Amino acid sequence: MAFEFGSVLSTAATGKAARFSGYPPYHFVGGNIDEPSVPVEALGDAVRKVIRDQGHAMAKYGMDSGPQGHLPLREFVCDCLKKRTGIDVTPHEVLLTSGSLQALDLVNKVLLNKGDVVLLEAANYSGALSRLDALGVDYIGIDLDQDGMRMDVLERSLSDLAASGRKPKFIYTIPTVQNPTGSVMPVERRREMLALAKTYDVPIFEDDCYADLVFTGVRPPAIHALDDDQRVIYCGTFSKTIAPALRVGYLVAPWQLLSSILPLKTDAGSGALEQMVLAEYLPANFDTHVSDLLPMLKAKADALCDSLDEHFGDCVDYDRPVGGIYLWVSLPENVDTDRLYQVALEQGVEINPGSQWTVDGDANKHRMRLCFGHPSIDNIRTGVAKLADVCFEEFGVPVRSGNVERG
Hints:
This protein is an alpha/beta fold.
């Protein structure tokens, strides 16, 4: 008889994972990107070169660069941030991480205790929300509009907390191509956020993971770049531009904080080969690679929007994406996307239900997040048509009269 491990599980073991059985045919979830866009030939050349030239350095943890990660890649990150975001930092203020998720975990670990308060956008990355839940942290959702987090609501929340004798540990924001809404915060609103953070003496954690994917190629300066008193922590990633499975992200913070974060990064260092390969590939190729991604992603976004209009008509509401790989969609109130997720998955279509991407999940069950980064345009069109069929059978939406209503 097999040993029953359930009797010895720790209190941290609160959930169970399902066995992975492959992706469904119509896959509109996760941060997966377009497979043909991964620069496999150039990465292969980079692998061969760095293995031959630098492979022996992998005999040491951290190689010759120490625990913050491969120095040439940190130098590239600094150069790239200066050019693309306006951030001016040194490699000593950059920590390479196993994806931006590790950066998020490290910031949470160094700053948060059970019962602390965090302010963030009311619609938000489900990974950020689930991590705060696991830590026992109270978080308050700040309403968004088409320009991102609303500063009047943020100010009211900060004031209310101050009146009750509480101070948030930080403001977490995704200001550039917000996840899931896709909004881009204008520069003046970014300055307002900094001013409020200064008034109430609160740090800001800026998650900029999608900022390279603004379709026009033009983005506002990072909040970090506008900060004059080192209160902004910043993270980014190469997951959405090069490849998610490489698991290379980065955290930017003043050494005062980074020196406390490093002892908490107990993995003996993120993968060295990935860092060396990116340091070899990126300097000569990153700008061109990203420029090539943008029209491809815009075409996919347009195909998704056009397909929703065709098959759902006036039953859907959304803001056409200006960047990124996600679309935030509202359906009629009678549609429960938790249920739609279940029945659609049985038919080979996977979506993200809105309840998982919002602070007030019950109030957002009629919303869904659709990722257009990975599927082809033909797959998007067929998948949306199938989703409309499933939604009609389950909820009577979209309304039909013989044929699908055309919007």
